[in-house]
């Protein structure tokens, strides 16, 4: 029973990996503990979003990932 955390963009560089499997279920507190201090600090930024099961969460602290879910960490997108 696992949840897959997907690290996208610069968060992938910070994590040193594209994804990480962690035990299910996974909530906000568990996510913060699973990603490490550097990424946890970035997740505190309001511009970083979280998607669970393909849906972006309006309130990322409401994360409730179940077995088989993918949790994508979405850094801010810059444009020009």
Automatic annotation (TrEMBL):
One Pfam family, short name: ThiS
Name assigned to this protein: MoaD/ThiS family protein
The species this protein was found in: Erythrobacter ani
